[in-house]
DNA sequence: CCAGATGATTCCTC
DNA sequence: GAGGAATCATCTGG
């Protein structure tokens, strides 16, 4: 307000000439109020006329050509009343709360953005380039077992794709940051420029910058979201690849089958046995469990289909036992198994159903014998016949049957 | 290409 | 939590 008093009566003011050239009749002059507090003096009248002129010019500024407007703008900027008017405008703005528009306090950081940031960091897209996510994914794959040698190829493929995503992400982020900075600078310059003709406080400029950042932040969120999606898709593909079923090696299947058929009465390996089998087959314990689960159910569903296989493994085991070479994969294939087997199965004279020792007997027995005779012959020297006795032997059912 | 084999997964029960 | 059953998805051999 002090400026208003200083601004009175200065015909030599550089702006006056310009103003006078566009001088309009002061029909809007006095409305009875005295906003400048100058009523009752010559200077007061002059000031009011000046204010009226200025307001009139402001009101008509949009109707004029750009050159004309620029000229008037310059004139206004240089007018001796400008500081006083400006100060009044500032005061009114403060009082009416206009300056508080959009003055919400700083929002806390967007939780979604935080989540995305964390995810990108965990996946090795953001942050230092160390391939943390890839390493994590690979380690997860390795720990789940069953990683074939060519998984390293998948790994490198994953890494290269991840690095592509990373590079695109950083390029786009850089572009975004650059655009944001440029736009912010531009707006700040505009506001600073405008602050010469209208009341724009530094705080308002800060707020405007915050608004711009918020708007740009949504773009950044989209970028991060897209990147996350890309990484998730890549990761799921990689994990799918990891899930790819690969048949066990022949040797592994052999080991598992040997155990299965030599423990047919109780094909449920203990934890220790599973561990041992897993070690021998180069697979995981859970894969051993899966294999036995599948085998049991499939065997039970179609025993006849597995008869051949059962015969083969029984023979193998028998030969091994005959040579006094107990299979290392069937550490318990001694007489105790025989007893369990006798309790668990209907015996027939087919070798598949027999204890290894008895299979040896079968080889030397003749097919002309009756079933009873064969059983008797086959189980010569062992307790199987006695164990089998409570169960009826069905000659046509030359299969093992789980109780 | 297709049917069957097979390893893995999911859901359910005990 | 282990195992049974059903199912999926992939592999394999003809």
Automatic annotation (TrEMBL):
Residues 1-47, 131-155 are annotated as: Disordered. Residues 239-302 form the Homeobox domain. It holds the Pfam family PBC. Residues 46-240 form the PBC domain. Residues 241-303 bind DNA. The keyword DNA-binding applies. GO terms for molecular function: DNA binding; DNA-binding transcription factor activity, RNA polymerase II-specific. Keywords: DNA-binding, Homeobox, Nucleus, Transcription, Transcription regulation. It comes from the Eukaryota. PROSITE patterns: HOMEOBOX_1, HOMEOBOX_2, PBC. It is found in: Nucleus. Residues 135-148 have a biased composition (Low complexity). GO terms for cellular component: nucleus. Its main location: nucleus. InterPro entries: HD, Homeobox_CS, Homeodomain-like_sf, KN_HD, PBX_PBC_dom, TALE_homeobox. Belongs to the TALE/PBX homeobox family. This is Pre-B-cell leukemia homeobox 2. It comes from Cynoglossus semilaevis.
């Amino acid at each position: 307000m002090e400026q208003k008093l200083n601004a009175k009566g200065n015909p030599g003011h550089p702006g006056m000439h310009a103003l006078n050239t566009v001088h309009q009749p002061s029909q809007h002059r006095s409305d009875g109020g005295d906003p400048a507090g100058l009523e009752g003096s010559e200077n007061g009248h002059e000031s009011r006329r000046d204010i009226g002129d200025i307001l009139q010019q402001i009101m008509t500024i949009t109707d004029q050509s750009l050159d004309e407007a620029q000229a008037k703008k310059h004139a206004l900027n240089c007018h001796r009343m400008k500081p006083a008017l400006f100060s009044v405008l500032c005061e009114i703005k403060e009082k009416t709360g206009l300056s508080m528009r959009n003055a919400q306090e700083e929002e806390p950081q967007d939780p979604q953005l935080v989540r995305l940031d964390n995810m990108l960091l965990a996946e090795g897209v953001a942050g230092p380039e160390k391939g943390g996510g890839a390493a994590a994914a690979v380690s997860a794959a390795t720990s789940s077992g069953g990683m074939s040698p060519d998984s390293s190829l998948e790994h490198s493929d994953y890494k290269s794709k991840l690095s592509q995503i990373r590079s695109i992400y950083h390029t786009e982020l850089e572009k975004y940051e650059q655009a944001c900075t440029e736009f912010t600078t531009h707006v700040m310059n505009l506001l600073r420029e405008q602050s010469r003709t209208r009341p724009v406080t530094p705080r308002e400029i800060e707020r405007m910058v915050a608004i711009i950042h918020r708007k740009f932040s949504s773009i950044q969120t989209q970028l991060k979201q897209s990147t996350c999606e890309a990484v998730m898709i890549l990761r799921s593909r990689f994990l799918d690849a990891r899930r790819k079923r690969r048949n066990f090696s022949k040797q592994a299947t052999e080991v598992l089958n040997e155990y299965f058929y030599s423990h047919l009465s109780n094909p449920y390996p203990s934890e220790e046995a599973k561990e041992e089998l897993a070690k021998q087959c180069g697979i995981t314990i859970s894969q051993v469990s899966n294999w036995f689960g599948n085998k049991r159910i499939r065997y039970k569903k179609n025993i006849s289909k597995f008869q051949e296989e059962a015969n083969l493994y029984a023979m193998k085991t028998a030969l091994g036992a005959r040579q006094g070479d107990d299979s290392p994969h069937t550490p318990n294939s001694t007489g105790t198994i025989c007893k369990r087997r006798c309790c668990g199965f209907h015996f027939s004279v087919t070798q598949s159903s027999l204890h290894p020792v008895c299979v040896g007997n079968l080889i030397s027995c003749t097919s002309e014998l009756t079933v009873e005779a064969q059983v008797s012959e086959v189980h010569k020297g062992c307790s199987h016949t006695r164990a089998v006795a409570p169960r009826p032997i069905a000659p046509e059912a030359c299969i093992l049957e789980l109780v």
